[in-house]
Write a structure and sequence with these properties.
With 83 residues, the chain is an all-alpha fold. It has two helices and no strands.
């Protein structure tokens, strides 16, 4: 552990017992988050990451492949698995 480190995130995400304990050997400031607040932060972060990925796919990738934003313009088997 050290400055800026976090612990207990898995326990708070999955509502389970923490697997470790932490003991401060010097003065420390500790922030505590309610489980619902932490989950909301994680959800928002995940949604932001998803939106960034979607925007990338709509711009960089589609331009590189020569497709427009319209799904009708892509070849029909582009995203279908092949056997």
């Amino acid at each position: 552990m050290g400055p800026g480190k976090a612990f207990g995130e898995l326990a708070i995400l999955y509502n389970c017992t923490r697997t470790a304990s932490v003991k401060a050997v010097t003065k420390a400031k500790v922030w505590v988050l309610d489980r619902r607040v932490f989950q909301a932060i994680m959800m928002k972060t995940g949604l932001q990451r998803q939106e960034e990925n979607i925007q990338f796919l709509r711009s960089e990738l589609t331009e590189a492949l020569g497709f427009s934003d319209r799904t009708e313009s892509r070849p029909p088997n582009l995203f279908k698995p092949t056997v």
